[in-house]
C-alpha cells in the first residue's frame, strides 16, 4: 500500500501521457509476480519470501494497471458515461476470470498433471503468453487524438523528412507502445535558448527570419544540424507560460 501511495503521488502524470504503455507494462510485471507463486512448489522451504515477493510484484502491477485503465476508460466515455464504461469492462473481466478459474479446476482434476511441474509450467506459460498477446492487440488498435512525446516525435519526423503531416490514425499506428519514451527518436529538447539553436552564433538576421517564419506560432522549432543523430530544438516565446502538446499539433 505504501508503495502504491508513493508511486501514485510521484509518477501520477505518466499515466496520462502514455496509458497504453503503462497498461502493457502492468501485465508484464503481473506475469513476473505469478512466476514467484509458481516456483514456490519447487522451493517449499522458501514459500514465505517467494510468496511475499510475488505479492509485492503484483502490487506494483496493480499500481500501474488501475490509473492507466482509468485513462483508457475516460477516453471511451465520450458522452460522460464513465460509470457505464467501467461497469462493462468489469463484466468482461469477471467473465474472463471465471473462465480461467474453470480451466484451472479442469487442469487440477487431470490425473498426473499437477504432479508434473514441467507440464504445469508449460501450460501456465502458454496461457500467460496468450493473455499478453491479446492485451497487446487490444492496446495497439487504441487511438488517442492527443499528443504525447512519442506521437510528437512521429509528427515532427514525418513533417521534416517527408513534408507530410500525419493524422491521428496514422500517428497512433506508428507509435510503439512497448518502447521507452527516452529512447525514441528524434530527440526533442524544450526550452532551448535561441543562441544554442544557432550553435552559439548570435545572428540578428537568423532571429528575424525565425520571428517571421513562426510569427503566428507560440514556439520555434529547429533541427540541430551539428549532430549526426536526428535532434530537434523547441524554444517557446516569452508569453508562453505552459507547455501544451496540442499547441505543437500541426493542423493540416
Automatic annotation (TrEMBL):
<dbReference type="Pfam" id="PF04884">
    <property type="entry name" value="UVB_sens_prot"/>
</dbReference>
<dbReference type="InterPro" id="IPR054549">
    <property type="entry name" value="UVB_sens_RUS_dom"/>
</dbReference>
<feature type="domain" description="Protein root UVB sensitive/RUS">
    <location>
        <begin position="9"/>
        <end position="161"/>
    </location>
</feature>
<comment type="similarity">
    <text>Belongs to the RUS1 family.</text>
</comment>
<dbReference type="InterPro" id="IPR006968">
    <property type="entry name" value="RUS_fam"/>
</dbReference>
<protein>
    <recommendedName>
        <fullName>Protein root UVB sensitive/RUS domain-containing protein</fullName>
    </recommendedName>
</protein>
Amino acid at each position: 500500500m505504501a508503495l502504491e501511495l508513493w508511486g501514485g503521488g510521484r509518477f501520477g502524470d505518466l499515466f496520462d501521457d502514455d496509458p497504453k504503455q503503462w497498461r502493457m507494462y502492468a501485465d508484464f510485471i503481473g506475469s513476473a509476480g505469478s512466476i514467484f507463486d509458481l516456483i514456490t512448489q519447487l522451493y517449499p522451504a522458501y514459500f514465505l519470501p517467494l510468496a511475499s515477493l510475488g505479492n509485492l510484484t503484483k502490487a506494483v502491477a496493480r499500481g500501474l494497471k488501475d490509473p492507466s485503465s482509468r485513462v483508457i476508460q475516460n477516453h471511451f466515455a465520450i458522452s460522460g458515461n464513465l460509470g457505464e464504461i467501467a461497469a462493462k469492462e468489469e463484466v468482461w473481466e469477471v467473465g474472463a476470470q471465471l473462465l480461467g478459474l474453470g480451466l484451472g479446476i479442469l487442469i487440477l482434476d487431470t490425473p498426473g498433471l499437477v504432479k508434473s511441474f514441467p507440464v504445469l509450467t508449460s501450460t501456465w506459460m502458454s496461457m500467460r503468453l496468450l493473455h499478453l498477446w491479446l492485451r497487446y492487440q487490444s492496446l495497439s488498435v487504441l487511438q488517442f487524438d492527443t499528443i504525447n512525446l512519442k506521437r510528437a516525435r512521429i509528427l515532427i519526423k514525418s513533417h521534416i523528412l517527408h513534408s507530410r503531416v500525419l493524422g491521428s490514425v496514422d500517428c497512433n499506428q506508428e507509435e510503439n507502445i512497448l518502447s521507452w519514451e527516452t529512447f525514441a527518436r528524434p530527440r526533442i529538447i524544450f526550452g532551448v535558448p535561441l543562441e544554442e539553436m544557432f550553435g552559439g552564433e548570435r545572428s540578428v538576421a537568423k532571429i528575424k527570419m525565425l520571428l517571421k517564419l513562426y510569427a503566428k506560432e507560440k514556439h520555434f522549432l529547429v533541427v540541430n544540424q551539428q549532430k549526426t543523430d536526428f535532434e530537434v530544438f523547441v524554444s517557446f516565446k516569452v508569453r508562453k507560460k505552459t507547455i501544451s502538446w496540442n499547441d505543437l499539433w500541426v493542423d493540416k
